[in-house]
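User: Could you check the structure of this?
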Amino acid sequence: MELRHYGWMALCAALGLVGCGNEAQAQDDPALEDAVAYAGRWATEPALCGQDGEEDRAITIGPSHFEGTEASCDMEVTEEGENAWMAQLDCPPDDMATDERMHLSLEEESEGGEGEVLTLTYLDREDHEVTLMRCPGPGE
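Assistant: Sure, the predicted C-alpha coordinates are below.
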Protein backbone atom coordinates (compact mmCIF):
# COMPACT_ATOMS: atom_id res chain seq x y z
CA MET A 1 0.00 0.00 0.00
CA GLU A 2 1.33 3.42 -0.90
CA LEU A 3 2.45 5.85 1.75
CA ARG A 4 -0.40 8.26 1.01
CA HIS A 5 -2.93 5.51 1.75
CA TYR A 6 -1.36 4.97 5.18
CA GLY A 7 -1.49 8.72 5.75
CA TRP A 8 -5.20 8.75 4.88
CA MET A 9 -5.89 5.91 7.30
CA ALA A 10 -3.96 7.68 10.08
CA LEU A 11 -5.81 10.92 9.39
CA CYS A 12 -9.15 9.12 9.52
CA ALA A 13 -8.23 7.49 12.82
CA ALA A 14 -7.14 10.83 14.28
CA LEU A 15 -10.23 12.67 13.08
CA GLY A 16 -12.73 9.85 13.54
CA LEU A 17 -14.71 11.70 16.17
CA VAL A 18 -15.00 14.89 14.11
CA GLY A 19 -16.29 13.43 10.84
CA CYS A 20 -13.35 12.34 8.69
CA GLY A 21 -15.71 11.51 5.83
CA ASN A 22 -17.17 15.01 5.77
CA GLU A 23 -17.10 16.11 2.12
CA ALA A 24 -17.15 19.82 2.93
CA GLN A 25 -14.09 19.39 5.13
CA ALA A 26 -12.22 17.60 2.32
CA GLN A 27 -12.94 20.48 -0.07
CA ASP A 28 -11.54 23.03 2.38
CA ASP A 29 -8.32 21.15 3.23
CA PRO A 30 -5.84 20.55 0.37
CA ALA A 31 -4.03 17.93 2.51
CA LEU A 32 -7.16 15.77 2.48
CA GLU A 33 -7.40 16.13 -1.30
CA ASP A 34 -3.92 14.61 -1.64
CA ALA A 35 -5.07 11.56 0.31
CA VAL A 36 -7.40 10.45 -2.51
CA ALA A 37 -5.41 8.43 -5.06
CA TYR A 38 -7.17 9.85 -8.14
CA ALA A 39 -6.90 13.48 -7.01
CA GLY A 40 -4.47 15.67 -8.89
CA ARG A 41 -3.70 17.25 -12.25
CA TRP A 42 -3.95 14.98 -15.29
CA ALA A 43 -3.40 15.32 -19.06
CA THR A 44 -3.38 13.10 -22.13
CA GLU A 45 0.25 14.07 -22.80
CA PRO A 46 2.96 15.89 -20.81
CA ALA A 47 2.91 18.98 -23.06
CA LEU A 48 -0.65 19.73 -21.89
CA CYS A 49 0.46 20.02 -18.25
CA GLY A 50 1.56 23.61 -18.90
CA GLN A 51 5.17 23.56 -17.75
CA ASP A 52 7.94 25.88 -18.90
CA GLY A 53 5.54 28.58 -20.10
CA GLU A 54 3.36 26.20 -22.16
CA GLU A 55 -0.42 26.54 -22.11
CA ASP A 56 -1.94 24.55 -19.23
CA ARG A 57 -4.67 22.26 -20.57
CA ALA A 58 -4.60 19.73 -17.73
CA ILE A 59 -7.73 18.68 -15.90
CA THR A 60 -7.89 18.81 -12.13
CA ILE A 61 -9.70 16.12 -10.19
CA GLY A 62 -10.40 16.47 -6.49
CA PRO A 63 -12.28 14.23 -4.07
CA SER A 64 -15.60 15.72 -5.18
CA HIS A 65 -14.82 18.04 -8.10
CA PHE A 66 -13.83 17.70 -11.78
CA GLU A 67 -12.34 20.77 -13.48
CA GLY A 68 -11.57 20.59 -17.19
CA THR A 69 -11.01 23.07 -19.98
CA GLU A 70 -14.70 22.92 -20.97
CA ALA A 71 -16.48 21.98 -17.76
CA SER A 72 -16.41 22.43 -14.01
CA CYS A 73 -18.49 19.80 -12.26
CA ASP A 74 -19.34 18.56 -8.81
CA MET A 75 -18.58 14.88 -8.52
CA GLU A 76 -20.01 12.22 -6.21
CA VAL A 77 -17.63 9.26 -6.04
CA THR A 78 -18.04 5.72 -4.74
CA GLU A 79 -15.21 3.24 -4.49
CA GLU A 80 -15.63 0.08 -6.56
CA GLY A 81 -12.42 -1.69 -5.60
CA GLU A 82 -8.72 -1.12 -5.30
CA ASN A 83 -7.87 1.88 -7.49
CA ALA A 84 -11.33 1.87 -9.13
CA TRP A 85 -14.17 4.36 -8.60
CA MET A 86 -17.56 5.25 -10.03
CA ALA A 87 -18.33 8.96 -10.33
CA GLN A 88 -21.53 10.85 -10.99
CA LEU A 89 -20.78 14.27 -12.46
CA ASP A 90 -23.17 17.16 -11.90
CA CYS A 91 -22.22 20.02 -14.21
CA PRO A 92 -23.84 23.44 -14.61
CA PRO A 93 -26.27 23.59 -17.56
CA ASP A 94 -24.01 25.93 -19.55
CA ASP A 95 -21.20 23.32 -19.64
CA MET A 96 -21.06 20.46 -22.16
CA ALA A 97 -22.88 17.84 -20.09
CA THR A 98 -25.18 18.32 -17.14
CA ASP A 99 -25.20 14.84 -15.60
CA GLU A 100 -22.86 12.06 -16.54
CA ARG A 101 -21.51 8.79 -15.14
CA MET A 102 -17.82 7.98 -15.30
CA HIS A 103 -15.62 5.08 -14.19
CA LEU A 104 -12.11 5.95 -12.95
CA SER A 105 -9.34 3.36 -12.92
CA LEU A 106 -5.83 4.11 -11.66
CA GLU A 107 -2.70 2.17 -12.60
CA GLU A 108 0.37 2.88 -10.51
CA GLU A 109 2.71 2.73 -13.50
CA SER A 110 2.01 2.53 -17.20
CA GLU A 111 3.54 -0.12 -19.46
CA GLY A 112 6.09 2.40 -20.72
CA GLY A 113 7.16 3.28 -17.18
CA GLU A 114 5.66 6.77 -17.42
CA GLY A 115 4.23 6.91 -13.90
CA GLU A 116 0.59 6.86 -12.82
CA VAL A 117 -2.11 6.48 -15.46
CA LEU A 118 -5.79 7.26 -14.89
CA THR A 119 -8.36 5.86 -17.32
CA LEU A 120 -11.71 7.63 -17.48
CA THR A 121 -14.55 5.64 -19.04
CA TYR A 122 -17.56 7.82 -19.87
CA LEU A 123 -20.47 5.43 -19.43
CA ASP A 124 -23.03 7.75 -20.99
CA ARG A 125 -20.87 8.24 -24.10
CA GLU A 126 -20.85 4.62 -25.27
CA ASP A 127 -17.98 3.76 -22.88
CA HIS A 128 -15.61 6.27 -24.48
CA GLU A 129 -12.19 5.96 -22.78
CA VAL A 130 -9.63 8.67 -22.11
CA THR A 131 -6.20 7.76 -20.74
CA LEU A 132 -4.48 10.43 -18.67
CA MET A 133 -1.01 10.75 -17.16
CA ARG A 134 -0.42 12.50 -13.85
CA CYS A 135 1.14 15.91 -14.37
CA PRO A 136 4.39 16.44 -12.48
CA GLY A 137 4.21 18.64 -9.43
CA PRO A 138 6.18 21.86 -9.01
CA GLY A 139 9.92 21.22 -9.22
CA GLU A 140 9.59 17.72 -10.71
